[in-house]
Design a protein that fits this description.
Layout lengths: L3 H8 L14 H16 L1 H14 L9 H14 L1 H12 L4 H9 L1 H18 L11
Helix pairs in contact: 2-7, 4-5, 4-7, 5-7
Length: 135
């Protein structure tokens, strides 16, 4: 029977561009080896969570220009602590025990990297946030 850690690693997508080498800082190594694959795995959930965030905030997002939508996404992730913590939980819940142990040693720096990745993911999926048209 596979362990939880093995199963978590097995379901993560591979990201060829997320290289890992000995010259990297520990944070950069963790970002490329763990955070990027986990964020990609959780992409659909992150986008859906942001859709829900938009709805909870009276759909103001849909009245904004593209530039202001990008800023809205960034602001929501940086300033709304409850939302930010929810997003962090979506990623941290996919860590192996060893990854979690590494994370808690330097959570402040890793949280910044994590939230930057989440922001980039949501912003790059901005088309998916459009209101669904009634068919």
């Amino acid at each position: 029977m596979k362990t939880r850690d093995t199963q978590l690693i097995d379901i993560r997508p591979e990201i060829p561009s997320a290289r890992v080498n000995d010259q990297m800082s520990a944070e950069e190594h963790f970002q490329n080896a763990t955070l990027r694959p986990v964020a990609k795995l959780q992409n659909d959930l992150l986008v859906e969570a942001f859709r829900n965030y938009i709805a909870k905030h009276k759909n103001v997002y849909y009245n904004l220009t593209v530039e202001k939508r990008l800023a809205y996404i960034e602001n929501a992730i940086q300033k709304d602590i409850k939302f930010r913590n929810s997003l962090k939980g979506m990623l941290i819940g996919q860590f192996t025990l060893e990854e979690y142990r590494t994370y808690i040693k330097n959570s402040s720096a890793l949280n910044k990297r994590m939230m930057n990745l989440v922001r980039e993911r949501i912003q790059s999926n901005i088309q998916l946030l459009e209101k669904e048209m009634a068919v």
